[in-house]
Write a structure and sequence with these properties.
heterodimer; A: 145 residues; six-stranded mixed beta sheet; 20% strand; B: 200 residues; alpha/beta; two-stranded antiparallel ribbon; 6 helices; elongated
């Protein structure tokens, strides 16, 4: 009996500081968590710029198209071929028309990889124009001076 | 003495193990899902619908046309503003070597050696900034002392389709604004791509 009690005393470490620190860490990681996952895809390496205007939170949902280095476009988290993009945009347009909005009301955000070809960026813009989208922004990573 | 301590200990003896288990699970989850948020910014480009590109604009100042040519690998070969070459061969060579360096470093990183990656990224960014500054000096030069004209001017980017996109962003950066300390003085607001050439 006495031996047992001794054992308990031996393993009696003060847990309080560790739990404090651990909770601090959890809170930190919770707050730094990125909830806009679809917006920032790790497969894209954005070109950097010193003057890119900070992203303004517009009230309408922008249509984000992300161009990978190999020329495929990430649409809704899935890579699709550039040539097949027209069909997806047709859907997008139908959804907008169903909500009685013109496609030109939506902003198309082009997040293209810095190593991708310019011609492919232009191809994306052209495909969007064919479906009636005409507001475009090019996204870049902000690198302050 | 010993008796008293053991009595106290047995009083507050809660089993912490399950809570600590859960807390560590949570900690691991948040650590693994951590993604650093990159600060991003936008450039507006003006791409109106229809084939009106090239048609008469509502102002009389002719557009600045920047022609960017590419090598077969997609590197910058030549930049011309209204027919004049505006980027020297040294800078072109520097851009190309920074590009090659980054490619090699990326390849090494894939093999597990990440040692050169940061240096290569920095060299790449430095060369891109030099390109931006060189282009910006030329843009400001065309406006002379009257920077207010820049607002009415349209910039047209005529790029080879194979050109790597980050050079285009450097050019857009140069045209969009001048960095003065913490502020950015806006320059050209209307930027567009040239319509694609038919023959290819």
């Amino acid at each position: 009996m006495a031996g047992k009690r001794k054992k308990t005393e031996g393993s009696d470490i003060d847990m309080t500081p560790m739990i404090d620190v651990t909770f601090q860490l959890i809170t930190f990681f919770m707050f730094t968590m990125n909830f806009t996952e679809a917006e920032q895809d790790q497969r894209i390496q954005l070109p950097t710029s010193q003057v890119a205007k900070p992203v303004e939170n517009s009230d309408i949902d922008p249509l984000t198209l992300q161009l990978m280095e190999d020329g495929r476009v990430i649409y809704n988290g899935e890579p699709v071929a550039l040539l097949a993009l027209g069909d997806y945009l047709e859907n997008e347009k139908a959804v907008m028309l169903a909500a009685s909005k013109e496609p030109s009301a939506a902003t198309v955000v082009v997040r293209a990889d810095g190593r991708a070809k310019t011609g492919e960026v232009q191809q994306i813009i052209r495909s969007c124009q064919e479906k009636g989208f005409d507001k475009f922004v090019l996204r870049a990573e902000y690198k302050g001076p | 003495m010993a008796k008293r301590t053991s009595k106290l200990v047995s009083k507050i003896d809660i089993n912490m193990t399950p809570m600590i288990d859960v807390v560590f699970q949570l900690l691991t989850f948040f650590m693994l899902t951590l993604k650093t948020v990159i600060v991003e910014g936008d450039f507006n480009i003006r791409m109106p619908l229809g084939a009106s590109a090239g048609a008469a604009e509502d102002n009389l100042i002719p557009p600045l046309i920047v022609k960017m040519a590419a090598t077969p690998e997609g590197r910058l070969a030549d930049v011309r503003l209204g027919g004049n070459r505006i980027v020297g061969p040294e800078l072109i060579a520097e851009l190309a070597s920074a590009d090659v360096m980054l490619d090699n470093a990326m390849e090494a990183a894939r093999q597990g050696d990440r040692g050169q990656l940061n240096a290569a990224r920095r060299a790449k960014q430095l060369s891109a900034e030099k390109l931006t500054q060189a282009l910006q000096a030329q843009f400001i030069d065309t406006f002379g002392n009257d920077l207010s004209r820049a607002e009415l001017t349209e910039l047209e980017l005529d790029c080879d389709p194979g050109l790597k996109y980050d050079h285009v962003v450097s050019a857009i950066t140069a045209a969009s604004g001048i960095v003065k300390g913490d502020d950015v003085v806006p320059l050209i607001r209307k930027i567009k791509f040239s319509p694609p050439k038919k023959a290819k």
